[in-house]
Design a protein that fits this description.
Radius of gyration: 22 Å
Strand content: 15-25%
Number of strands: 7
Structural class: alpha/beta
CATH superfamily: Periplasmic binding protein-like II
Number of domains: 1
Strand order of the largest sheet: 4-3-5-1-6
CATH class: Alpha Beta
Number of helices: 5
Largest sheet: 5 strands, mixed
Shape: globular
Length: 161
């Protein structure tokens, strides 16, 4: 009759302490849109962001030229953009850029770069815009993080999660 209680008592140390201090909550990384600190834009509608990232819109509200640097192929930031902004796979995106070039809608295919190069470009160019993962953004970097549809990165409903 005491055997089940004894068995449970022997198993508890193996299961570990269920205290909240031992449970690790992983903070989900999100893609963020960064711009030069001098850019007057603070928030973009998702539709506006799509137009900028697909080069259908090439000027900011202050008439500065959009300087777009896209994430490297295969990066987490690129996968977020493919799913949430472009809504296509990489092959379809390459076809999209080829069509835009062929029809003279853009002068050249957008350049891609890693996080650090993207941040440096955004800091230098007044019209700079890039998408990077929030956890990869070094502390103290002088860039502006835009809200999308009034939502900050990490908020419920933020579209680049």
């Amino acid at each position: 009759m005491n055997v089940p209680i004894l068995s449970l008592a022997l198993l508890l140390p193996l299961l570990g302490n269920p205290s909240p201090h031992r449970v690790s909550q992983k903070t989900k990384d999100v893609a963020i849109v960064i711009v030069n600190p001098k850019n007057p834009t603070k928030d973009l509608k998702l539709a506006e962001l799509r137009k900028i990232l697909s080069l259908q819109s090439r000027r900011w509200s202050n008439k500065a030229k959009v300087r777009l640097l896209l994430p490297k192929t295969g990066s987490k930031a690129q996968r977020v953009l493919l799913k949430r902004i472009y809504k296509m796979n990489i092959k379809s995106l390459k076809k999209y850029w080829a069509k835009m070039l062929y029809t003279n809608k853009i002068p050249s295919k957008p350049k891609t770069a890693g996080t650090i190069k993207s941040i440096k470009m955004v800091m230098r160019k007044s019209g700079g815009i890039a998408v990077v993962m929030k956890k990869a953004l070094p502390k103290g970097i002088k860039v502006k993080i835009l809200t999308i549809d009034g939502k900050s990165p990490g908020m419920k409903g933020y579209p680049l999660q």
